[in-house]
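Regression check, D-xylulose case 436:
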Amino acid sequence: MSEYFTQVGAIRYEGPESRDPFAFKHYNREDVVEGKTMAEHLRFASCYWHTMRNELSDPFGPVTARMPWDDGSTTVENAKVRARVFFEFLAKCGIDYYCFHDRDIAPEGASLAESDRMLDEVVEEFARLQDEHGRKLLWGTACLFAHPRYAHGAATSCEAGVFAYAAGQVKKALEVTHRLGGEGYVFWGGREGYSTLLNTDMKRELDHLAAFLHMAVEHKKRIGFAGQFYIEPKPKEPTKHQYDSDAAACLNFLREYDLLEHFKLNIETNHATLAGHSVEHELEVAAAAGALGSIDANRGDELLGWDTDQFPTDIYQTTKVMLSVLSAGGLAPGGLNFDAKRRRESFEPVDLIHAHVGGMDAFARGLKIAAAIRADGRLEQFRKQRYASWDSGIGAQIESGAVGFEELAAHAAAHPEPELASGRQEMLENLINEFI
Ligand code: XUL
Ligand code: CO
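Current build output:
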């Protein structure tokens, strides 16, 4: 099996005392936390676009990534070689799942029909490799943002022919995701937004986006695909304003267009940061609507205002994410997809391993710490106690809808000024630090 990552064998758990950079210090897949194994809780995925296709160029310089297996051609054969490398990588890291865009895994042809043919051929190799290595597809998606035809958007393009082309592409992407037993399908609105309102009919574009998603729901039913549909919020990049700007905006859109029952959200850490939110805020917004689906696990840089897609290594952040995930009852059929890339300076193949192993360990620690905080119970107890006035008396009457303004005004007149308790933020922050 060791064809491409020859310096490393399968990554093993060695425990927190290990100093081996190629060993897990915290991720022990069979360890049981709150009744499930770590692997069942975390459901790690690697993404094909960054791991296999990101050559690490930036606006100031060309590619740096060394990919000795890649001959640089846009042939189906080269695409199949990459796939073999990827599955060896997944198996070595012990990553059970992966995610892809149609155009990451197979080349784009001169026509939709040619692209579909090449995609089918590569997908058969993926199916074989999934079986050989025991790996699974977390979700598939279609790249509706890279090709110049999507310059004005895909489902929100001003050109109806582009909408039709995008529909053809998503139809096929749904079918191959189904063929590979994918557990979900993501819609990230790559260029669904605007650069200037001067040329944009926003209402019409949103109506089109909703129509597109209804057609996708229809096609999903037609082909018998039972995977979960997700929308991935992001506020900007590449457009100045993306319609799916944050979790609340997505939920509002889905409700307005009667789509909410068919979709959950795929929350990406760095997208939350760009929206001016913490990732846990986005997770809580999604969970409150029963729509927490999956996570694109990465991080930004507080000093940089763009989508740096770094690997998650911040234990404080992974702890907060796992607190939200555990209290929402888990992620399945979603998972933790490392939508993350190495820095341009980390150009060796082995850096892919360091990056993923570190991300997995950071989340394993976050999971253990979050479970310990929950087992301790003080945080939850404090939060519950803070709302105790709603458990009986006038609070319970308000919650049950038994009283209106008349009764409440009478209540306020008959009672002394309400007494408030401290929010104790500092004490709670100290409490979290006891466990980190
Ligand atoms: C872009 C992004 C995408 C989606 C899938 O910022 O996150 O890679 O996750 O299209
Ligand atoms: Co993403």
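Comparison notes: The chain is about 45% helix and 10% strand. The longest strand covers residues 136-141. No diff flagged against the previous build.
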